[in-house]
Amino acid sequence: MNDFATAAEAAAYRMLKQVLQNHVALQQMSILATSMACTGLLGDRCLECCAAGITPQDVIAAMLGRLKRGVRERQTLPALLPFGRASADAPEVHLGEHSRRLYDALRRLLTEVGDAQRIDSRGSMQIVLKLMADVLSMFLHQFDLTLAAVDTIIDEVVGPSLDSYLKTQVPPTIS
Fold first, then answer.
1. Rounded to an integer, what distance in angstroms lies between the CA atom of residue 164 and that of residue 65?
2. How many CB atoms lie within 10 A of CB 143?
3. With 90 as the cut, is the pLDDT of residue 128 above it?
4. If 0-12 CB within 10 Å is exposed, 13-18 middle and 19+ buried, where does residue 77 land?
C-alpha cells in the first residue's frame, strides 16, 4: 500500500485513524469488533469496484492481497495503541453494538470528508485498506501471532466476510 495520492487523503486517513483509536479506548473495544467495523467499510469500497464492472471474486482477491502486503509493511512497529483486555478475556461482549457504532462513525466521516475534499473512490479505498491493515497488524504486535496466522485470518475470516457481504449486495449476473 503506497503513500496517498493527495494530502487530503493522508489527512483523512489520520483523522479516521484517530476516531478509530478514540472509539477503541473509550468503548474498550475488542480487536474483533474493530476488525468487523473495518471489514464493513472495506465491503462498502468493494461494492464500488463491483459497480464499476469488476467481479466480486476479483475484487476480494485483490483486497486480500493488498491487506496482506499492508500487514507486512507494519511488522516492525505497532500502528495503533493496544486493544483493551476485553480483547483477550471476552471478545463477544458488546461485539455487534461496538462494531456498528464504529462502522457508522467511520463511514459517515469518510463520506463527509471525501465529499468535502473531493477524495475519489480510489483514495477512499486506500484509506480503508490502511486502516484495516493497521488493525490486523495488531494481531502481530499485541497478540504475538505470526504473519502466517494473520494471513489465515485474512483468508478465512475477512475474505468470507467480504464474500458474504457482496453476495447480499451485488445482484447476480444473468447468464
1. 18
2. 14
3. yes
4. exposed
For residue 131, the tally of other CB atoms under 10 A from its CB is 25
The predicted-structure confidence for 6-64, as pLDDT tens digits, reads as follows 999 999 999 999 999 999 998 888 888 899 999 999 999 999 888 888 999 999 999 99
The Cα 60–Cα 47 span in angstroms is: 10
Q: How far apart are CA 106 and CA 96, in angstroms?
A: 15
Res 118: pLDDT: 93
Q: What is the 3-state secondary structure (H, E, C) of the chain?
A: CCCCCCHHHHHHHHHHHHHHHHHHHHHCCCHHHHHHHHHHHHHHHHHHHHHCCCCHHHHHHHHHHHHHHHHHHCCCCCCCCCCCCHHHHCCCCCHHHHHHHHHHHHHHHHHHHHHHHCCCHHHHHHHHHHHHHHHHHHHHHCCCCCHHHHHHHHHHHHHHHHHHHHHHHCCCCCC
Amino acid at 45: R
What's the chain's average pLDDT?
A: 89
Nearest to 36 by CA among 112, 94, 86: 94
Q: What is the pTM of this model?
A: 0.90
Q: And the C-alpha cell for 113?
A: 470528508
Contact 68, 136 (CB under 8 A): no
